[in-house]
């Protein structure tokens, strides 16, 4: 249904590496994450990761430049959503306000951003036109959203020992068993689509 542009796929890949690298580099001094093997690896390889982040960010920027208006049109809403989640506003007294304080939201932010990158962005650049694309695009978005939500829940189960209680992820609030069950249920739309 949707023909993905190879250039945009490369942009998504390099931007993902850069974004996750930045997030890990910023959070590697967080005392709550000191026991995380991933954070320990980042601390041991900080110079390498800074180089990788800079290289990937520069390459993603160069690759996306001809498509910059399409990318902004497709991703400005999920991008804004993610930014408000990642960068809460600090208040006096050390408290912060932001989307991070909303229960369950972490997995939904991740699923929204990734479903947008894998469906809306290629859909806007596809050579197919008309209502058929629009209807199929939103169905595909829903399937991808469920798939990425399942993955996000699974990674939150893995990260439970290191996530602060205030993050209030799905596994923290529902428990590991219920979270795993929900993650499996969310894979069903993708299974039906593939079948």
Task: For the structure shown, list the relevant keywords.
globular, 195 residues, two-stranded antiparallel ribbon, single chain, 8 helices, mainly alpha, 2 strands
The main sheet comes to: 2 strands, antiparallel
Q: What gyration radius follows from the Cα positions, in whole Å?
A: 18 Å
Detail the poorly predicted runs. Answer: 127-132
What is the number of helices? Answer: 8
The overall strand count is: 2
* Helix and strand sequence: HHHHEEHHHH
Tell me the fraction of residues in β-strands, as a range.
Answer: under 5%
Helix fraction, binned, reads over 70%
Furnish the topology, listing elements before pairings.
Layout: H1 6-27, H2 37-44, H3 46-64, H4 68-86, E1 89-90, E2 96-97, H5 105-125, H6 131-159, H7 170-174, H8 176-194
Antiparallel strand pairs: 1-2
Question: What does this protein look like?
Answer:
It contains eight helices and two strands; from the N terminus they run H-H-H-H-E-E-H-H-H-H. Helix 4 (68-86) packs antiparallel against helix 5 (105-125) and helix 6 (131-159) packs antiparallel against helix 8 (176-194). It has a two-stranded antiparallel sheet with strand order 1-2. It has helices at 6-27, 37-44, 46-64, 68-86, 105-125, 131-159, 170-174, 176-194, and strands at 89-90, 96-97. It is mainly α. 25% of the residues are buried.
